[in-house]
Amino acid sequence: MTTAFRIAILLAAAAALTPAAHAQSYDMALSVLTSRFKSSDKNGDGKLSLQEAKDGGMSRVVANFTTIDTDKDGYVTFAQLKAELEARYK
Ligand SMILES: [Ca+2]
Question: Which among 8, 58, 59, 78 could disulfide-bond with 53, CB atoms 3.0 to 4.6 Å apart, if both were Cys?
């Protein structure tokens, strides 16, 4: 392995850890979450039942449903999902 190649790897690793890259991956995750939430919310009431999350293939939401559903009403809202996403990224 050449020195130049090693430096390139170190720079790439450092870039991946910068706040900008971090924010970008959060923004991407949020945009994916937004579109998946919309497509999974079949009855359009602005919240997901466990069944809607399952049908929508949102396996992370299904696995963590009761944790994300912080008010324990049996549904996860977009705000609850966003809060959970922020807790993971920030
Ligand atoms: Ca719904």
Answer: 58
